[in-house]
Design goal:
Shape: globular
Number of strands: 2
Helix content: 55-70%
Radius of gyration: 19 Å
Length: 107
Amino acid sequence: MRSGTVRAPGGKVNHHGGRHPLNAIARSLIAWVIIGLLAGFIGSLLAGPGTMVGYLIAGLIGALVGGFVAFQFNIDLRLGNRFLAQIILSAIGAIVVMIVAEVAVLA
């Protein structure tokens, strides 16, 4: 074994001294931002145009709204792909957020 190489359980070699370059929280946040951008973009196609920052904000809030509604009503899309299901639920949430924001601006 090379210096600095650590064998993880199961025999896998980790060249980062036992630490992962990104921990689970960082990976989760990055995935949430990517899902938020995708959801905001998809939502903007249906609710109206906007900027990249607007997509991100609407998508991130939409991800929270979509996840909350799915949890409260025990909604499971059963797509076999959790990432795709999160994007769809987040896009639905982003559309709801954009419609509510548009109604609030008009009022």
